[in-house]
Amino acid sequence: MNLSIFGLGYVGAVSCACFAKLGHQVWGVDINQHKIDLINSGKSPIVEKDLEEYIAEGVAKGKIEALKQVQQAVHASDVSIVCVGTPSQLNGNIDLSYIYKVCLQIGEALKDKSGFHSILIRSTVVPGTVKECTEIIANASGKQNLIDFAVGSNPEFLREGTAIYDFWNPPYTIIGTNSEKTETQIKELYKDIDAPIYTLKPEESEMIKYANNNFHAMKITFANEIGNICKALQVDGHKVMDIVAKDTKLNLSPYYLKPGFAFGGSCLPKDVRGLNYRAKLLDVKTPLLNSLLESNDYQVQRGLQMVFETGKRKVGVLGFAFKAGTDDMRESPMITLIETLIGKGYDLSLYDSNVLLSKLMGKNKDYIIGHIPHISRLLKESIQEVIDNSDVIVIGNKASEFKEVLPQISKDKIVIDLVRIDTERSSGENYQGICW
User: Fold this and answer.
1) Which of 45, 98, 176, 380 can pair with 84 through a Cys bridge, CB separation 3.0 to 4.6 Å?
2) Is the pLDDT of residue 266 over 90?
């Protein structure tokens, strides 16, 4: 395949070298003559293991050529890959001007180019950038999106120092596009890379790099805060975190990484408070750990706001134990939500089969009678009774019976789903998910 790669910095230079190694013909485009001269002489513009060897080989085989001429590169290629910088502005926003400038130039070059052309944004950009770039290219070229060209997102996952290795061994390849032609081209481009390929909407693809990098930053900060507490307690933080990382069932797994409602129960809130208090006694600052309960409380407020915004007063709640399959209501965020709505005068109907069983059989009876008698009095005997009495239905845990009844709820009632009881449903019409 013929490729034009815009921006010969870290991502661009590595991409040029590795795609040429795969046998593709690559034209690298940059405004910096020094970078162009280096690459054309078989040298690397950056220090990175094995990169110069790759570039030298690509140039020697005639697979890599660096140049300034945008039109020449676009006309010679089937796919343009944008790798220019997206630096931070003083206010923290990212500067997309280089991306937009390159897309404008590509659009102008496409005016008199025949055949379909794909443009891939490989730089890290905020969701919505592909859409903006599509409009820029359409206006500059006079061509039609999805017919004459398409813009897609193809984020990279390259670490400095191991970029060549990472190119050959990515966790996955992400294709963010609305074009079947572009999807086919990208799959062809990466067919020799042993990694799963996921095709997403452009906005989802654009968000993945931010989610990944912020997750990495959070993990580093978390390990540092745990390590600081460990040292103050004369405990080896590395040994502690080494064992934490060996748990691939819960700690390093998808189990807790699903957007939804706040956490609760008898363990997490108590242990977060306990560790933060101990850190305070040790004079160890833990801003990340300190933020956990505040962020958790915010998620409860988001759920409440969704109810408030309906403008309805009759609210039904399906499931309020802190998770399905239990009757444990200790620090359940759903109890907080319910009590707030009661305090604001909402007319509530509640159903949770496990809580109802506890009330009847006494398993958790003392807690129900002693702590939430006002909630106990609002319990209904069936899901249907809650639905019939309510204009808004809030789904509070993942009991399977709630998924079964979801399609039966009439369109004139609003469903607010805090747990994504049906993973195939997205917000729309009378259904609203808290994070989807």
Assistant:
1) 98
2) no
Domains in the chain: how many in total? Answer: 2
Domain carrying residue 415: 301-433
Give the relative orientation of helices 33-40 and 51-60 as an angle to the nearest 10 degrees.
70
What is the predicted pLDDT for the residue at 325?
A: 79
Within 8 A by CB and 6+ apart from 271, the residues are none
Q: Which of 256, 240, 260 is nearest to 248 (CA)?
A: 256
Compute the average pLDDT of residues 322-338. Answer: 84
CA–CA separation, 50 and 163 (whole Å): 9
DSSP code string of 327-383: ---TT-HHHHHHHHHHHTT-EEEEE-HHHHHHHHH-TTHHHHHHH-HHHHTTB-S-H
- How far apart, in whole angstroms, are the C-alpha atoms of residue 89 and residue 39? 30
Rg (alpha carbons) of the chain, rounded to whole number: 27
Residue 29 in any domain: the answer is yes
Q: Within 10 A of 289 (CB to CB), how many other CB atoms are there?
A: 19
C-alpha span between 154 and 145 (Å, rounded): 18
Instruction: From the candidates 18, 133, 267, 435, give the one annotated as an active-site residue.
Output: 267
Global pTM value: 0.87
Question: What is the pLDDT confidence band of residue 237, given thresholds at 50, 70 and 90?
Answer: very high
Does residue 244 form part of some domain?
Answer: no
CATH code, domain carrying 123? 3.40.50.720
Cα dihedral sign, 188-194-199-203: negative
Tell me, yes or no, whether 308 and 184 share the same domain. no
Question: Among 157, 89, 75, 87, which Cα is nearest to 117's?
Answer: 75
pLDDT for residue 310 is more than 60: yes
- Locate tokens 């040029």: which residue? 16
Q: Read off the tokens for 8.
A: 């010969």
Neighbouring CB atoms inside 10 A of 387's CB total 20
Q: Per-residue DSSP letters for 63-131?
A: -EEEES-HHHHHHH-SEEEE----PBPTTS-B--HHHHHHHHHHHHHHTT--S-EEEEE-S---TTHHH
Distance CA 152, CA 200 (A): 10
- How far is the C-alpha of 54 from the C-alpha of 59, rounded, in Å? 9
Higher pLDDT, 182 or 90: 182
Q: Tell me whether residue 16 is one of the annotated catalytic residues.
A: no
169 vs 186: CA distance, rounded Å: 17
Contact 13, 32 (CB under 8 A): no
**Residues 319 and 171 reside in one and the same domain:** no
